[in-house]
Design brief:
By secondary structure, the chain is an alpha+beta fold. It has helices at 2-16, 24-34, 40-61, 67-111, 162-182, 186-203, 206-211, 287-290, 302-306, 314-329; strands at 118-119, 122-129, 140-147, 150-158, 214-221, 227-233, 239-241, 247-249, 272-275, 281-285, 337-343. Helix 1 packs parallel to helix 3 (40-61).
Length: 345
């Protein structure tokens, strides 16, 4: 409504004030305000309305033949023409931005595709909440792969942000897809990821080549066995929610360094095993969940929210959890958050 209000205000100002006062700035502002907000047709109509209204007021006041009136009309007309040109440029820029966003979304989804709702004998759901506005992924990752050894999963968090982190995500997921299919043990899969990050780090320069690392938790659910095997490399522990609401945190028995830091002295990976009964749900997440803060700086505790609750499906669990985190943090988080839930039917 602002362009129309400016035109009305300009007409009233011209009509109600002495002749030495002019409403030209208001008439001039109307089409310029309309340019980035309206369509091309709307901008043209606003410019025409401003010119016609200014001319009508001058005719009504009998000043149309004065030099000041001619100057004001020329100024309003020039602003109307410029507004049309601005509108054309803005629309072209918006079209290019929309195209770039579509390409970026396709590229990011190719790096981090959504897993199917059913993989092997498991119900699966995944969710990604990027902290950066208009981004679909960042430095967090997840992947689910059916293999000859069962369903294998990984959730991780790459150090850093931006395109460098996205490139590392692509490296980790690519290595995981290949290793999950070929390696006989979960420990060997973790070793392949370690070597892939080392090769990636060797190609980088400066500080990132020395300090680059990824926290990750890998899980394996063998066929026909009611167990889950886990290798944790410096990542928040998975949570196992039983059908009756009982919650168990699968903490690492032997803490290990993140992927990419193996040369600093951690021993060989040792998978730990836990019971994974029917109708239980395994939740893997990044620290964007557990480190979300409220206005007082208190961390979010997913275990406190999930304990004693049941959900009809993994997707419902992730939706409820994401909504609860938003309420806790006041609408947004400062870190990416990746969630992966699998249920044994």
């Amino acid at each position: 409504m602002l362009p129309a209000l400016l035109i009305v205000a300009g007409a009233l100002y011209e009509y109600l004030t002495p002749r030495d006062f002019t409403g030209g700035p208001l008439f001039t502002a109307a089409p310029l305000v309309a340019a980035p907000l309206y369509s091309l047709r709307g901008t043209v109509l606003t410019g025409v309305s401003a010119v016609v209204t200014a001319l009508a007021v001058h005719i009504r006041l009998g000043v149309v033949r004065q030099a000041e009136s001619a100057t004001e009309m020329a100024t309003v007309l020039t602003a109307a023409v410029l507004a049309v040109l601005i509108n054309v440029l803005v629309r072209r820029g918006n079209a290019r931005l929309a195209s770039v966003r579509e390409i970026a979304e396709a590229a990011q989804r190719a790096v981090l595709p959504e897993p199917g709702e059913r993989i092997g004998a498991l119900d699966v759901a995944a969710r990604y909440e990027a902290a950066q506005e208009d981004a679909f992924i960042g430095g967090d990752l997840y992947a689910v792969q059916e293999s000859p050894y069962g369903v294998r999963l990984v959730v991780g968090d790459v150090r850093g942000k931006g395109m460098g982190a996205v490139a590392a995500v692509a490296v980790v997921i690519g290595a995981f897809r290949e290793a999950a299919e070929q390696e006989a043990t979960l420990e060997a899969v973790a070793g392949r990821l370690e070597r892939a990050l080392e090769r990636e780090g060797a190609r980088r320069d400066g500080l990132d080549a020395f300090e680059g690392f990824t926290t990750a938790v890998l899980a394996e659910i063998p066929r026909g066995e009611k167990v889950v095997r886990i290798v944790n490399r410096g990542h928040p522990p998975p949570l196992l929610l039983h059908a009756d609401g009982t919650l168990v945190a699968l903490d690492a028995v032997e803490p290990a360094l993140p992927l990419g830091l193996g040369e600093l002295g951690s021993g060989p990976d040792r998978a730990q095993e836990a019971e994974f009964p029917k109708r239980a749900t395994l939740l893997l997440h990044t620290d964007g969940l557990s480190e979300a803060r409220d206005e007082r700086g208190r961390f979010y505790d997913p275990a406190a929210f999930l304990a004693g609750r049941t959900f009809p499906a993994p997707g419902a669990l992730l939706t409820a959890l994401a909504d609860e985190v938003r309420r806790h943090s006041g609408g947004g988080t400062t870190d990416d958050m990746a969630l992966l839930a699998v249920r044994r039917p």
